[in-house]
Amino acid sequence: MSNLKKVEFLFAVLLVVTAVFFFVVAYLDWIDFGVVIGSFRFNHWLVWIGALYIAFAVPIYSLLKRHYAARIRRLLGFHVFGNLTAFVLIVVHFSSQISRPAAFYPDLGTGLAMFLSMLLLVATGFSHRFGVVRSVNPQTHRLVHVGLALSFYLIIGIHILHGLGFL
Predict the structure, then answer these.
(1) What pLDDT, in 10s, does the model give residues 67-108?
(2) Angle made by CA atoms 46, 18, 138, in degrees to the nearest 5
(3) Which class for 93: exposed (0-12), middle (13-18), buried (19 or more C-beta within 10 A)?
(4) Which residues lie across from 36 on neighbouring strands?
(5) In this structure, how many other beta carbons lie within 10 angstroms of the beta carbon of residue 25?
(6) Is 59 helix (H, G, I), strand (E, B) or coil?
(7) Is residue 126 within 8 Å of 118, Cβ to Cβ?
(8) Rounded distance between C-alpha atoms, residue 161 and residue 78, angstroms
(9) Which pLDDT score, from 0 to 100, does residue 105 have?
(10) What is the dihedral angle through the alpha carbons of 147, 148, 150, 153, rounded to the nearest 10 degrees?
């Protein structure tokens, strides 16, 4: 593994550890991310930022990598670290939601499905980028990762419609 890839790997691990840290802190209510700012709670603003980033950045990355294949390393960094940062924001929202008291507990249907799909996206992306599971063919990793991304988009659309009361 090259030195650059080692640094990228360590930074990616740091982002995953940060996500776990924020999950624990939000779940145990050590930090209250439920402060109302404008019309939404802070954790909702975080999830909107993370989800909107993913909603636009992933298709842009997909298009750009086809047209600028020579610059794939820079684009790949944009994809990996931007999405991991968005994942951290989404983790704060999810852990804040599941830590709510029983009387105010959310309907976890689409949110749980979306979070699980996001976890699988992070795991397959991490594994594919850094070769963590070498026994799996890279094309298989890519196929599963892209399929999960498509299911994530479907689930996020349903989740938003559900949250807005249309479903």
Answers:
(1) 877 777 778 888 899 999 999 999 998 888 877 766 666 666
(2) 95
(3) buried
(4) 41
(5) 16
(6) helix
(7) no
(8) 29
(9) 64
(10) 180
